[in-house]
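Question (not urgent): is this output format expected?
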Amino acid sequence: MRCSRLARLLVAVLILTTVLGSSGIALGQRITAANNDLSITVYNQGLGLVKEIRRIHVDSGITNVTVSDVAAQLDPTSVHFRSLSNASTQVLEQNFEYDLVNQSRLLERYLGQEIELIDDNNTSRRVTLLAHQGGNLVVMEGDRIVIDPPGRIRLPRLPDGLIIRPTLMWLVSSQTAGPQLVELTYLTRGISWYADYVGVLTPSGELALSGWVTLENNSGKSYENANLQLVAGDINLVSDSQVRPENLLVQRAQAPYTAQPQFVEENLFEYHLYTLDRRTTIKDRQIKQIGLLSCDSAETDTVYLLENNVWYNGSSPIKVMLQTENSEANGLGIPLPQGKVRLYQADSSGELQFIGEDSIEHTPKDEVLRLHVGNAFDIRGEVTTLGSREITKDTKDVTRQVIIRNHKEEAITVVVTEKIWGTWELLEAKEEYRIPDANTLEFTVSIEPGEEKRFTYRILL
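Got this back:
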């Protein structure tokens, strides 16, 4: 039995040696990805955590190990490398090579050297490169200096030090030689995600809501058949200036469609972790959308809101707010990551029409979700100061008037908020009110169809 196992191992090693040798790569110089070994966690702030298990062959003693299929935007100070199968394998040095091949870097290495120029007849001539800028050359041809000579450039070889892809290189020490499983972990920029919601308001006032995860990958690497996890929350990053670029917004021209939930949610420290229930491939320079949630009939309320501050006089728009509770009883009940919500409603012919959009912050379970859909067409509001009487050198008795006109065919309720900063006191109010915080005075006003409602209040400022 032992001989049989040894024979199979020798055959496997010979096959591996043959494959690596035929590609011109020395054994012990290359890391090969293992099957089903890639995971990536993506954060809201344009950051990804890549985790891989790879198979390598390590010689005994001190040897180099390199890997080139890593993210171009990786943070080299975040790289972690360790052997899972051999505790004697230790990392002595770690290097990140990122001097990538491009036209400018190639020509820079050939300054003062001879290069070939090929004309349209495929005739070659040799010149000495003196300078280059933006693809324009200055060369010495014979005893003449030629600026921007015609012809295609041909170089004899790739200069030492230039590489095709960003490459990680380790100098490792091991007491034994043989195959090992190693863990490679690093952080990378250039990959981000956000939530994107589509809501359809039914004639009965219920909300059918679909949630989508939108990923954009510009990290310089494709993640094939990877386990995907998303972290929702604001982690602290030192000197982080990354913002979500506007070009990540995906506008849909077609009617919205229902997302099928595919993520399992759990708590992670003070954040929320969403794990995709299958593997997926995230290609470099790709925008991918995956279903996050689906709710057919969340109950909603329409709230009309007039927002003002105590020093402003004049007309103000009446905001239309759609309000729903993020609870299980209401068909939702999962933590909602921040994102944009686009809302639709069917017209009299059944065609869906876009009625507005709003962005939401991270919304915990059982919190109220309030969306600003737009401004009311048939409701007008105006707030003015009727009078101001000085009480002392530093205080005034101010009378304010609120006017709301309802041109709709149904009764409405409008919430009027006045923002007040500093020290103040409500002296008199002609309408139901509350003080939700130290800087806000709030009135709730009911108005019949076609009615104009006026009321005043006095405040000590």
